[in-house]
Amino acid sequence: MSEEHGNLIKSPKQLIVMVFASFFVPLIIIAFLMSYVGNGKKPAENADAAAESANQLIKPVALLDFKDASGPRVFKSGEEIYKQACASCHASGAAGAPKYGDVGGWGARLGRGYDSLMSAVVKGKGAMPARAGTSPSDVSDYELGRAVVYLAASAGGKFAEPKAPAPEAPKQAEPKK
Questions:
Q1: 0.85 cut: is pTM over it?
Q2: CATH superfamily for domain 78-154
Q3: How far apart are CA 78 and CA 98, in angstroms?
Q4: Where in the chain is the domain with CATH 1.10.760.10?
Q5: DSSP letters along 117-140, please?
Q6: Nearest to residue 148, comparing CAs of 126, 131, 133, 170?
Q7: Contact predicate 125/135, CB 8 Å
Q8: Neighbours of 87 (CB within 10 A)
Q9: What is the pLDDT of residues 112-145, one digit of tens each?
Q10: What DSSP string describes 55-97?
């Protein structure tokens, strides 16, 4: 029988070389990759600029909106909802959305009235998802209505601000039986 598939390591010296190579070669490759990636970063001229740069990088992650479920609900303004949910399409006119402040684009829509616009927002229309892509637990119908009034006012619409919902009474725990 032939020894076609014999051992690759035939002496203790080869074993030492292979152990050394299998440990240090990946470390050397990692060191080269770190220096390659590090060369692309330009150090800031001063500490304030470096801190501002870091703040800008983490800002999308750092702006978490924690809510106290037991506290009273604080409603956002129409402008805040517009910036949060609507501006991604209505600022640029993406997917045929009428642009913010574009009287021509909003003219026919404003003629149909507030209820028609609100229905389109809640149910979705064309490329716009239902509730403008928001969740009912995050953005109420009242807040969406405020955003509709804000967008309509940018194009000359004169809709009345929707009526604020009555505050909910705090829920009490049921007694144990």
A1: no
A2: Cytochrome c-like domain (1.10.760.10)
A3: 17
A4: 78-154
A5: HHHHHHH-BTTBPGGGG--TTTS-
A6: 131
A7: no
A8: 15
A9: 888 988 998 899 888 888 888 888 888 888 989 9
A10: HHHHHHHH------TTSPPPPPPHHHHIIIIIHHHHTTTGGGP
